Description:
There is one protein chain. This protein starts with 5 loop residues before the first strand and ends with a strand. The protein is mainly β. The chain has a six-stranded antiparallel barrel with strand order 20-23-26-29-25-24. Strands 5-10-11-8-9 form a five-stranded mixed beta sheet. It contains nine helices and 33 strands.
Amino acid sequence: MTISKTRLIGSASGMALLCAAAPAFAQTDGGAPTYASPAAKAAAAKDAANPDAAQEVVVTGIRASLQKAIEIKKLAVDQVDAISATDIGKLPDKNAADALQRIVGVNTESAASGEGGFDENDRVSIRGTSPSLTQVTIDGHGVATGDWFILDQYQTVGRSVSFTLLPAELIDTVEVYKTQDASLLEGGVAGVVNLITRKPLDFTQPLTVQASIEGAYNTLSKETKPQADGLISWKSPDDTFGVMVQGFYEDRSIERFGQETLGYTAITKDTINPTTGALIPGMPLGNAHPDLVGVQAPTLIGSTLFQQEKIREGGDAAIEWRPNDRVELNLNGFYSRLNATNVNDNYMYWGNNELNNNLPTSYTVSHNTLTSAVWPAGPNGLVIDNITRPNENSYTYYVNLDGKFKLTDNLIIKTQVGYTEGAGNTPEQPAFESDGGSAGVSYAPSGNGWVVNPVGVNTQSPAGLSNDWAWNAIFHSVDTEYYGKFDGDWQADAGLLKDVVFGFHAADHTRQVDGWDRGCTLGANGACFGSPTMPFSATNPTPYPSGFSASALGIPGLLIPIAGNPNTIDRIINAIPGGIRGPLSAIVTPQNYYWNLSFKVQEDDYSGYLMSHVGGDNWSGNFGVRLVETDEQSFVNTPSSCPAAPAVAPPGTICSSAYGGYIVNDVKHNYFDV
Length: 674
């Protein structure tokens, strides 16, 4: 059997696919074929009547997806890897960042500030570098980011983008540029991750409708939550105009508990400031044993319970117009919002308090680490945090207009203009803290964790604990960017010179973070309750999961918190005279402004480039130059003194905050790079 002039679309190869391309039949003893169906017989007759007609086998599914990714890598001059969805919303993983970790040289992080994993992968880096060195774009333009977690809202996340707002349903293809060239956007030091979305004129059928419903089951919370997405795309019969609308909704129940070590500190001893001659206090252990100076010791060992419900919802829309083969316009917009209400409880060994105020009766050191210690009664060796974050959330959106114009047979001009905004919000964080008083405590290694044993404290009862602090924090971070691009491509096709590309890119990016914090001291001084009595009852059980125990987790020294019921925390916060809950206007005031974690940065980038692609048989390359000017303006808060009258504060000092005086410094820089 022979098949002539058969064209295979996709990665079809091998005898099985060649056989699949032919009409199905079986040979009989008499030599006449027996066809599997009337359709197969009709197809064979048609082929016999026109033996020169080309046959086409269209390959779809996983094989087509792999072929598309391979073609992207094959045709790219730069070092590029790619992942292509087999169908709408069918990347290898639910989260685009989860899928990217399958690419060699691409790393993912579950959180930006190192506070621990929260379900999905969050950040992407290339070759082990910081995520802030990786540029993330959508369809070639920047995208603003937002973070739901309060630490990520005010700590340094740099230029990195959170993938928790970018569902896999949005994406058709992901391209990872591991090397730079002159035409790429400025900012991707380690590389560029470009997410390519679907367009209505890309679909093969005039009308495409897709919908899916799923359920996600969490083995710890024992809850099943729904996930759904849908898409409808229409295009005119002549392929000149199309409209696409897509929506998604995902609900997830998350629960994690176990033990975590929240940092280490180096042991110190008393020293003298060489300039002033003043004593710089060290740690009692370092003073008693100078040979231990520099040894690392755990500062906090926590038994943590984290419960969260994450609801991600949003959509994507696009309008595409291609009246002829020389003009193409595409207007598209995207919006995604994540509500991440959570409860975070932690019953912790307070190591840094012991180190700074106490001397252990015994200890061990291994690999330059204080691996165990027994602390006698004295300072607070235990601290218990019970935190709720109702309606903690983040969002991102963009509006983008692309244009493509073929001015001549050899010259193509592409334009792009748009706006993107992202934000992270902690509307309130009512929290309550208690401590272990003067009880002693010890810790020692146990498997991959620690055994922590408090002395004279029942970790499942308020008895022996004392009030410490209650507070409410509000944080808001916002990213905005206006951008514009102009790119040209002149097809030379003159020997080794294939084309010359050139362009100009501009972006105006702003990030601002503001925080407010209002708290009060609990306990005998009467600032909050007027009494050292714990404001909840030991007989009022808290709804902890049945699996949250030392025996279930296999950690003998696991400490079980006793105040984590969100209703209990609300009762504590609401009972404070004058309230630190209440209306936001009572908290968002100059007095409560947390200036030391607030800032604003504005950056304007302008870049122009000229680059040529060259190549011959079995080789290709490019060479070019990019000129970049960067203007930066940062508003940085620094401490300042607010002396009592009649002394005068330094010029520019703001003395309205309870966290001390500060000065807003306007710092400007300009850079020009080639």
